[in-house]
Amino acid sequence: MNMLHNRYKFSARVTCGLVLFLCLLFIESSNQKAYAQQSTNEKLSDVKSAISKQKTTIKQVGSKKQKLLTQLKNDDLAIAKIVKALNKTHASLKQTKKRLNELVKEKSQIIQAKKQQEAVLAKQLRTAYSTGHHDYLKLLLNQQDPGSVQRNLTYYQYLNKARINEIDQYKQTIAQLIEITNQQQQQAAQLQSLESTQNQQKLALEKNKKQRKATVAQLNKALLTSKQKLAKLEQEEADLVSALARMAELSKQEIDLNGLSKLKRKLSWPVKGKINRSFGSRKQDYLKWKGVLLAAPLGRQVKTIHNGTVLFADWLKGYGLVTVIDHGEGYMSLYGHNQALLKSVGERVETGEPIALVGQSGGQSQSALYFEIRHNGQAVNPKLWCR
């Protein structure tokens, strides 16, 4: 009995121990689960907070990018305005200098004529002096032969008339000389004023260029990833296609333009320069160039490839200052990244006529012309038309 009792007590102790162990194990497991749940909740909270911050950052970047794009547009337009004014001032300066040179030549000719007239008058005065200063009355009284009197009288009348004519001409020459001198002074003053205006415009241009450079740098900094750049390019291309579609509708009104179908490899490039980006080459990921990028110096004239009507002349996101020409029959040519636009919407242009100046608007780091040819809204290779 004692042995059975001892066994029972031992078994009871083991059972209690196991129960106690299991209880402790359960409690430990519960504690671990609670700790894990708490850790998971904390991590989830951290992730949610990070997502919220990221959304806020993305929103701020998007807002900043939009502001920078607006600033870029304003910078490009300000530069274009100054360049157009500078271009006009340069033309006026050229014309004024030409007029000044003409006035210098005219003045030289008048001075030469004045010297000749003075010589003639001096000769006439010496001739009159050599006759002894006789007046008509003395001539009449001292002459006995009526024929001689008449001849002398006619001679002196001729001399007198010639002298009066020379004096009148001399007066006119002096008046012309005074007038030319006044014009010369006015032109010189205008030249000085134009040069001063030109210097001010150049300073303003440099200031705006620096502002634009800073804007482009900030804009590039805002585009952190290639995915963002791709999205930007996709949006810009979509905007361009949409704008060209609207222009195509407007161009249907033109019935006297013959298009470009018969002009393959007969047209001149809009500007002389190396092709930095070819039609169809990779632009970003799967996006390809729909036109060509021609490297050219800042301010070089951009000329239309064929006659037509200006459909668009304004700033376009991603392409800067753009001119689009309608050539009829569904053909259009596009000229982008200009520094200034020389033609307005609705104007007719002839083949080879300057329509813009090469620039780097739209966020470009180097001066170049972006050039496209489209037919019925589809981009075609410009090399098939230009030589």
Number of DSSP strands?
A: 12
Give the overall silhouette: elongated
Mean pLDDT level: 77
Helix content: 55-70%
Q: In DSSP terms, counting alpha (H) and pi (I) runs of 4 or more, how many helices? A: 4
Assigned CATH superfamily of the largest domain: Glucose Permease (Domain IIA)
CATH topology of the largest domain: Glucose Permease (Domain IIA)
Order of helices and strands: HHHHEEEEEEEEEEEE
- The proportion of residues in beta strands is 15-25%
Characterize the biggest β-sheet.
10 strands, antiparallel
First-residue to last-residue Cα separation: 121 Å
Total individual domains: 2
Quickly give the structural class. Answer: alpha+beta
- What would CATH call the class of the largest domain? Mainly Beta
Q: Write down the Rg.
A: 45 Å
Poorly predicted runs are: none
CATH architecture of the largest domain: Distorted Sandwich
Task: Walk me through what this model shows.
The chain is of the alpha+beta class and 387 residues long. The chain has two domains: 69-222, Orthogonal Bundle (Helix Hairpins), CATH 1.10.287; 227-384, Glucose Permease (Domain IIA). It is built from four helices and twelve strands. The strands form two sheets. Strands 1, 4, 5, 6, 7, 8, 9, 10, 11 and 12 form a ten-stranded antiparallel sheet that branches. Strands 2-3 form a two-stranded antiparallel sheet. Helix 1 runs antiparallel to helix 3 (146-222). The longest helix has 129 residues, at 2-130.
